[in-house]
Amino acid sequence: MIKIKAYAKLNLNLHIIPQLLKNGLYPVKFINCQINLFDELSFVPIKKKIEGVTEDNLVYKAAVLLKKLVNNEDLGVRVYLKKNIPTKAGLGGGSSDAAATIIGLAKLWKINLSQGQLDQLAGQLGKDVFYCLKGGICEVLSDGSVVHGLKLALPKLFLMIVIPNKDKPSTAWMYQNLDRQLIGKNLEKFKRLKKAISDRNKKEIIDNLFNDFESLAIKKYPFIEKIKDDLVGEGALKTLLAGSGLAIVGFFVDKKKAVNAFNNLKDIYKNILWTETI
Questions:
Q1: 3-state SS, residue 172
Q2: How far apart are the C-alpha atoms of 93 and 9, rounded to whole Å?
Q3: What is the reported pLDDT for 168?
Q4: What residues contact 76, with CB distance under 8 A and at least 6 apart?
Q5: Is the same domain home to 30 and 138?
Q6: Is residue 167 predicted with pLDDT exceeding 90?
Q7: Of 57, 45, 135, which Cα lies nearest the Cα of 65?
Q8: How confident is the model over 123-142, as pLDDT tens digits?
Q9: CATH for 72
Q10: pLDDT tens, 14-59?
């Protein structure tokens, strides 16, 4: 049996450049980190079949693609997946599960994958999988498929995450409904955030957090403003939309304040948790 943790990702900077690439996608500039929130996957070898997850799950799709890549129909696996990362929250749970499946099954099935093969698999599964295969502090560029590890350590930040009980639009919908006049205007924060992480300057890190999707999310879901206000009222130094939403993250430098905020808000927001950066 192979056991692996699939960590949630968090965009600390999410900038979208208004000029489209040749493939019709927006170029991006992200700085991503992982947080101490993870799904747990276990893989047990069996013959031929992929069991334990439904066919619409990215874990299943990743396993099928890996089998096709190595052209070995005898390979099989029973998957045990324990979900802890909220779904459709902007925290990359599905993509992280897919990346963990590729890594875990490569070990289980004794497959050596080249970087080109990893990129091929990620390209078929979703842009966030490129980052999730690498993890850590990274800058994500181009259409999301170019990922550079920054070899930096993020100082500990404590996070309060509120997940609204609403169906979120797809990431594709969010991209399609962006106002090009409003995006890509805060790129100086990208450089400042990289320097702040390098300097381990928590104040500068928090000051330069940014997400180009946030204004669109607030326009469509005005209640986000109330969540942000409540987090700030409980001591959050900054709030940020997670990915394309809809989770809202409050940032704290003091663990005790984060725990107190959780205790004060947990009866108001039923889907709420606190965690920390790693």
A1: helix
A2: 8
A3: 85
A4: 45, 46, 47, 48, 49, 50, 51
A5: yes
A6: no
A7: 57
A8: 999 999 999 999 999 999 99
A9: 3.30.230.10
A10: 999 999 999 999 999 999 999 999 999 999 999 999 999 999 999 9
Three-state DSSP state, 103: helix
Locate 267 and state its tokens: 């009866």
Q: How many CB atoms lie within 10 A of CB 268?
A: 11
Domain count, the chain: 2
- Residue that terminates a domain, selected from 129, 149, 169: 149
Cα(184)–Cα(125) distance, integer angstroms: 26
- The answer to whether residues 7 and 144 belong to one domain is yes
Verify that 43 and 97 share a domain, yes or no: yes
Residue 233 and residue 103 in one domain: no
Q: Which domain holds residue 198?
A: 158-276
Mean pLDDT on 56-80:
97
Active-site residue list = 9, 128
Looking at this protein, which amino acid is placed at residue 256? K
Q: Provide the CATH number for the domain around residue 184.
A: 3.30.70.890
Q: Which residue type does 139 have?
A: E
